[in-house]
Write a structure and sequence with these properties.
567 residues, alpha/beta, Nucleotidyltransferase, domain 5, DHBP synthase, seven-stranded mixed sheet, five-stranded mixed sheet, 23 strands, globular
C-alpha cells in the first residue's frame, strides 16, 4: 500500500488530501471544519477526516507531501529583503513570511504531535507551482497538455508556463515576484474597499457593471511579454505585502483614492473594477497564446488562485487557440494538497497508475442515522417525502428557496449541488431575494445556473460539458428573458452542467424542474451566508437554514419546512 498525505497550510486555504495506491480517496478544505473562511493554520480536522475516509492509521502513512519549499522561501525573502526594509509595513511582511516558512519547515513535527509518535512518514517538500500544475493535470485526465498557473506568489514564482506528456513536465517560462497577477488583483480588491485574499470575486462580479475607463493606466501596471508577467512597481507598490500593496499617487490621481469599506459603490468604482479586470484578462490571454505557440499543445489546464477568475478563463477558452481548456476547480492553494501528494507519488511510485477522480465530491458525507440524530437533538420536525428530488423541484417551482445537503461535500470553493441553495432561475426578482434575505451580500453578485448537460448548448453559447462553474459563457439573447435570475448584467453566466453519472440526485432535481417548467436548470449558490464557509455538517446546515430566509432544507430522505409566520 502506498499512502501519501498531502498538506498545505500557513498561508491561506489550508487543506489535506490522501492519495492511496494512486487514487485520491479524500480531500477537504480546513475552513469547512473550523468555520473560519480561508483558515491558514495546520489542517488538523481535514487531516483527521481524510485518514478516517481512507480507513488508515497514522502509522500506515508512507509519505507526507507539503506544497512549498520552505528553505527556498527563506532564501528568496532574505535575498529580496532590501526591497522591503524601507517600505511602510515591509518589515512586518518580511517577518511574517519568514515565520510562515519556519513553521512550514517544521510540518513533520507538527504532524507527529498531532497524529501520535507512531507516525514514521518522511516529509517531502514540493515546489508550489508544480503542486498547482500537477493537481490540474491529474483532474483534467489529459495525457498531454499545456499548463498555465498564476497566483500571488509561491516561493518566489508567480506563474508557470509548462507542458506535460508521457515524459513528465517541461517548463517554458516563469514569472517572479514582484511581477504578481495575484497581488495585483488583491491590490485592486483593497482599493475598492473589499478584503484582499478574500473578496477578489466581488471585483470580478462588479467589473461587469462598469466601463473600461481606466484601461490604459491598468495596462501600464500589468502586462506580459514572451510568456512573462510584468508589474510596474512604480505604479503599484507590491513590496508592502498582499494586504498593504497600494497604487501610487500618480495612479490615484487618475482613479481616485481608495474606497472606504462599506461606503457607496459608485460608477467610478465599477469602472475601476472593469478596467482592472480587463487588464488581467489581456495578460492571461497573452500568456495562453504564447504557451499555445511554444508548446504546440491543443489542450490547456489552468491553476493557481488567479485560475478561479472564471471571466478570464472563458476568454482564454474562446480566444487562445486551444481546442480544450480545463481550469482546475480547486485552483486555490487548497488544491495544492492534492498536487503535492501527486508529485510525491510520481517520484516514489511511478509503477502504480494514477486514477482520475470522477468528480470534486471528495469531502465527508453523513448517514441517514447521523442526520436523524441532529434533527432529534435540535427538537425539529421533518417530513419524509416519497420522492425527495421531485419534492425539491416542486418547492423551487413554487418560488421557494431550498437548501440541499446531500452526499459528499465538494472539494474547492464551488458548491456543485451537494451543499447548495437552489431557486427558480425564471424569476427576475429571485437574484435580489436570495442576495438580500439569504446570503446577506451585495446586490451586484451573480448566481450560477446548474443546467442539465444535454441542454446546455441550447442556452449558453459554446457550452458543452462544464461541470465546475469555473468558466463564463454568453447566454443566447433570445434566452435571457427565460432565465433572468442567472444571467449576469453583461449577458453571461457562470455555468455548471450536471450529468446523471456524476450526481444522480441533483440531476433528478433539475430534470423534475425541467419537466414541470420546460427550463432545464435551477439557480445554484453555495449553502452559506456572507463571511462563513460553505456548510460541512448537518449541524452547520440546520444552523444556516434557521438563520436565513431559506424556506426549505432537503437532507435526503428528510425535508424540513419553515412554518409561515402567523398574521
Amino acid at each position: 500500500m502506498a499512502a501519501i498525505l498531502g498538506i498545505n497550510c500557513y498561508k491561506h486555504d489550508a487543506a489535506a488530501a490522501l492519495l492511496l495506491d494512486g487514487e485520491l480517496v479524500a480531500a477537504a478544505d480546513e475552513e469547512r471544519f473550523r468555520r473560519i473562511k480561508h483558515y491558514p493554520g495546520y489542517p488538523e480536522k481535514a487531516v483527521e477526516y481524510v485518514l478516517k475516509e481512507a480507513s488508515i492509521r497514522p502509522e500506515q502513512i508512507d509519505h507526507i507531501a507539503f506544497y512549498m519549499l520552505p528553505g527556498l522561501v527563506i532564501k528568496e525573502n532574505l535575498s529580496y529583503s532590501r526591497h522591503y526594509l524601507l517600505k511602510r509595513g515591509g518589515i512586518h511582511f518580511l517577518l511574517s513570511q519568514l515565520n510562515s516558512a519556519r513553521r512550514m519547515r517544521d510540518i513533520g513535527r507538527t504532524a507527529s504531535a498531532h497524529l501520535s509518535a507512531g507516525l514514521k512518514a518522511n516529509v517531502s517538500f514540493v515546489k508550489h507551482h508544480m503542486a498547482h500544475a500537477d493537481a490540474a493535470v491529474f483532474f483534467s485526465g489529459f495525457d498531454s497538455t499545456a499548463v498555465l498557473t498564476m497566483d500571488g506568489v509561491g516561493e518566489r514564482d508567480t506563474s508557470l508556463l509548462a507542458s506535460y506528456d508521457k515524459n513528465g513536465f517541461r517548463t517554458h517560462s516563469t514569472s517572479r515576484f514582484p511581477n504578481s497577477p495575484g497581488i495585483y488583483y488583491s491590490a485592486v480588491t483593497r482599493h475598492l474597499g473589499f478584503m484582499p485574499d478574500n473578496d477578489e470575486y466581488k471585483v470580478m462580479g462588479l467589473s461587469s457593471y462598469g466601463e473600461p475607463e481606466f484601461l490604459d493606466i491598468f495596462r501600464k501596471i500589468i502586462s506580459s511579454t514572451k510568456g512573462r508577467i510584468k508589474v510596474n512597481t512604480r505604479l503599484l507598490d507590491i513590496h508592502r505585502g498582499v494586504h498593504e500593496s497600494g497604487f501610487s499617487p500618480e495612479v490615484q490621481k487618475t482613479i481616485g483614492p481608495p474606497r472606504r469599506p462599506g461606503s457607496e459603490i459608485t460608477d467610478l468604482h465599477k469602472n475601476i473594477a472593469c478596467s482592472a479586470q480587463r487588464a488581467l484578462e489581456e495578460t492571461g490571454l497573452s500568456l495562453a497564446r504564447y504557451l499555445r505557440d511554444v508548446s504546440g499543445m491543443d489542450r490547456l489546464v489552468i491553476s493557481g488562485g488567479v485560475g478561479l477568475n472564471c471571466v478570464m478563463n472563458g476568454l482564454i477558452e474562446r480566444e487562445s487557440g486551444f481546442l480544450e481548456v480545463y481550469p482546475f476547480p480547486a485552483s486555490h492553494d487548497a488544491g495544492t494538497s492534492a498536487g503535492a501528494a501527486l508529485q510525491v507519488h510520481r517520484e516514489f511510485y511511478p509503477e502504480i497508475p494514477l486514477v482520475r477522480p470522477e468528480s470534486m465530491y471528495l469531502g465527508p458525507s453523513y448517514t441517514e442515522d447521523e442526520i436523524l440524530d441532529v434533527l432529534r437533538m435540535a427538537g425539529l420536525s421533518w417530513e419524509r417525502p416519497d420522492n425527495p428530488a421531485d419534492k425539491t423541484a416542486e418547492l423551487i417551482e413554487q418560488g421557494k428557496i431550498v437548501a440541499l445537503f446531500n452526499g459528499r461535500m465538494e472539494f474547492g470553493p464551488r458548491a456543485l449541488g451537494n451543499r447548495s441553495i437552489l431557486a427558480d432561475p425564471r424569476r427576475e426578482d429571485m437574484k435580489d431575494i436570495v442576495n438580500s434575505v439569504v446570503k446577506h451580500r451585495e446586490p451586484f453578485r451573480p448566481f450560477c445556473p446548474s443546467c442539465l448537460e444535454e441542454h446546455s448548448g441550447e442556452y449558453f453559447e459554446g457550452c458543452g460539458i462544464a461541470p465546475y462553474m469555473i468558466k463564463t459563457y454568453q447566454v443566447f439573447p433570445e434566452k435571457v428573458r427565460e432565465i433572468p435570475a442567472v444571467t449576469h448584467v453583461d449577458g453571461t453566466a457562470r455555468v455548471q452542467t450536471v450529468s446523471r453519472e456524476t450526481n444522480p440526485f441533483y440531476y433528478d432535481v433539475i430534470d423534475s424542474f425541467y419537466r414541470r417548467t420546460e427550463v432545464p436548470m435551477v439557480l445554484n449558490t453555495s449553502f452559506n451566508i456572507r463571511g462563513e464557509p460553505i456548510v460541512a455538517s448537518p449541524v452547520d446546515a440546520v444552523r444556516c437554514f434557521y438563520g436565513t430566509g431559506i424556506d426549505a432544507l432537503v437532507m435526503p430522505p428528510f425535508l424540513l419546512l419553515k412554518k409561515p409566520l402567523k398574521e
